[in-house]
Design a protein that fits this description.
- The chain is built from three helices and six strands, in the order βααββββαβ.
- A hairpin with a 3-residue loop joins strand 4 and strand 5.
- It has one domain.
- With 93 residues, the chain is an alpha+beta fold.
- The longest helix has 10 residues, at 7-16.
- Strands 1-5-4-3-2-6 form a six-stranded mixed sheet, sandwiched between helices.
Length: 93
């Protein structure tokens, strides 16, 4: 599947000083996946090294028949994930 980066994602990568390969890696390797019912987007979460620390990092993406468009990326805490699942905003895929 072809992976495409949106302009917003490219901006976030520069602003947060995140490696250009990280979103693609998270998309391909993440075991933790959700669906966001508020934004109608897929979410993948994976622990990575970010600024010399192990952090959970999430990507939001849209799936199309011919491609995947990764929209954004940012660090996320476990308690944020739990809260979003408990409120029903995110459901496990």
């Amino acid at each position: 599947m072809r992976v495409v980066y949106t302009d917003h994602l490219k901006l976030r990568l520069r602003a947060r000083r995140i490696s250009e390969e990280m979103p693609k890696r998270i998309y391909r390797e993440a075991k933790e996946r959700y669906y966001n019912h508020a934004t109608f987007r897929h979410i993948a979460v994976m622990t990575v090294t970010y600024h010399r620390r192990r952090r959970k990092m999430m990507i939001a993406y849209d799936e199309f028949p011919d491609r995947v468009e990764i929209v954004t990326i940012h660090p996320i805490e476990s308690h944020q994930i739990r809260k979003r699942v408990l409120t029903g905003r995110w459901t496990h895929e």
